[in-house]
Design brief:
2 copies of one chain form a homodimer. With 355 residues, chain A is of the alpha/beta class. In chain A, 40% of the residues lie in helices and 24% in strands. Chain A has 12 helices and 14 strands. The first copy, chain A, has helices at 14-32, 45-51, 57-64, 88-98, 122-125, 164-180, 195-208, 221-230, 242-253, 294-306, 311-326, 344-354; strands at 2-10, 35-40, 68-73, 103-109, 129-135, 139-149, 155-163, 184-189, 215-220, 237-240, 263-267, 273-277, 329-330, 340-341. The complex binds 3-isopropylmalic acid (2 copies). Chains A, B: It catalyses: (2R,3S)-3-isopropylmalate + NAD(+) = 4-methyl-2-oxopentanoate + CO2 + NADH.
Chain lengths: 355, 355
Amino acid sequence: MKKKIAILPGDGIGREIASGAASALEAVGKRFGHEFELEYANIGGAAIDSDGTPLPDSTLALAKSSDAILLGAVGGPKWDSLPSAERPERGLLAIRKELGLFANLRPIPSFQKLVQSSPLKPEIAGNVNMLIVRELTGGLYFGKPSERRGENNDVVVDTLLYTREEIERIVVKAFEFAKSRDGRLTSVDKANVLESSRMWREIVNEKAADYPEVTVDHMYVDAAAMKLISSPGQFDVIVTENLFGDILSDEASMITGSLGMLPSASLSESGLGLYEPVHGSAPDIAGQNKANPLAMILSTALMLKYSLHLREEGEAIERAVQSVLNDGFCTPDLQMEGSTIVGTDQMIKLVTERI
Amino acid sequence: MKKKIAILPGDGIGREIASGAASALEAVGKRFGHEFELEYANIGGAAIDSDGTPLPDSTLALAKSSDAILLGAVGGPKWDSLPSAERPERGLLAIRKELGLFANLRPIPSFQKLVQSSPLKPEIAGNVNMLIVRELTGGLYFGKPSERRGENNDVVVDTLLYTREEIERIVVKAFEFAKSRDGRLTSVDKANVLESSRMWREIVNEKAADYPEVTVDHMYVDAAAMKLISSPGQFDVIVTENLFGDILSDEASMITGSLGMLPSASLSESGLGLYEPVHGSAPDIAGQNKANPLAMILSTALMLKYSLHLREEGEAIERAVQSVLNDGFCTPDLQMEGSTIVGTDQMIKLVTERI
Ligand SMILES: CC(C)[C@H](C(=O)O)[C@@H](O)C(=O)O
Ligand SMILES: CC(C)[C@H](C(=O)O)[C@@H](O)C(=O)O
């Protein structure tokens, strides 16, 4: 099987970890007899420097013509003083919107070896296996008007806007995942305050009729922020709108004990998907061979499973990562007792060998 | 000194815990020679039952004519099937708006005796002393339009609206608190996405010039949701808009190990304030002498300090609560090793005796 993969390393540690994705794909290709054609393009700060815009047309064109997209991370102090409409993050928001990447998936597992580095007690952090499904192209992030008003510009407005269709497709996606997992779906909203949440809740209840095998409950976002800490083990699949999902998925990412281990997927209706680690570009450690490439490598595994339908291949990567951890290797960001600390390059090599 | 206090017990355990507030005030009155005139009125579900509306005019009039207001909790399954515009929570939202209670204060301390019941590791939970200042009468909670649109009502919109003045007054309030505490203010926003957050950030930076003794930093709401778990000890005062504050303050409330211990204050520009526990109406244990009255009693202490300027009196209550905990007494919701579990009545008596 031959597939074209767009790799957008981005900024900071992006380039270093992207090389982990490339190595993992090479190893998978060899072992399973696939050919992955990798093409690189800039996004974020790197694209501002090269093309004067965080999402150049050429990058977008490459992404559209690929079978899947891997992204490193964007942003850094170099571009922090730019007006917000021109900043690296805009590249991320724009590619999501342009490609219709409406479904952001964030699996949050417990890594037994890392339980000690969670801020939560081990008995709470050790038993987690949830998937957060975040709507990614609607809500307050894109609603218009988003502007200053009034004679002196002394009123400011942002708009939380959803169409029924936008809510339906993400809710259906979440039901499908719940069905293939433990059959439990928690829909998070603020229906005691927001009209958009009331419509969201209605749609969840409507769609529930099509999934009798899935148990649904509704939770207010403030209660969910509590439960994610006090009993994260209770969740299977969580579905929520864009901004709530941004906050809750980052909160939940702390449970595992390391941001450096968490992949994410953003899917469109066509099946085209963008895969990226949850962590940022970490400019403070860029170029020092200290970055943890595992979230990027695990994002590559998700890509194989979700966009290329190569389940076995994806699982081979996941097992390789698990085996490296079990053998006591880790990067400096992970606090594993009695472990051997290795650099980015070495970690990539260790995983690749095991694929 | 003679003061009129409105007590709005509300629903569920509201009535039981309100009696804790009344007893504490009686004890303070005796010891310090003040007269507190307590007047009771309904709000929430109780008011729906008695008056057909969650905030009767008579309740509002009483609140307006009082020196301060104590509220128990609202809501319960009995009223859950009402349309949301008529539900108990509407009483809460309406009284906030009607009285202009724009500043919600949530102190989050560590209780040494309770550190074990936090989901966080003791070394993380044990060192917390933050104050969350949440804007309470603006943003998505009250912005218009908040409606369905389009031919088939298939578009839904909520509006995040702030005026410069609304942002300024809450920011100034937060700076004042930071100045009187450890001098550190963290402003939380989503300025990489929202125009309202960019205006918020500008105003914080403007006001910072008036408070050279306060160190200010800005944090995105998703990062704040992480830091509240991974290093809650880093925060002194946090200031943020209404919805972010709702989510983050509930998340932070888990740190202490018990919702049953947390008071809150909601202040207006005139100084009139409403004081209530952070926990809800807990209908499942209502009337069983199991509710923890300490959050209500500590809310009464906040009232004495913030609205009646009786600092010593408020501290006398806080010391009494601390002493009861130190002597090993607790209600069933608290998990304290080797403690004596007592009911609501007995807990109220224990605290009152010590005032
Ligand atoms: C960079 C930012 C705009 C982005 C978001 O809020 O969506 C990030 O926090 C994320 O979650 O991918
Ligand atoms: C009941 C609800 C409307 C309310 C809010 O969101 O403000 C509650 O969660 C709170 O924080 O007091």
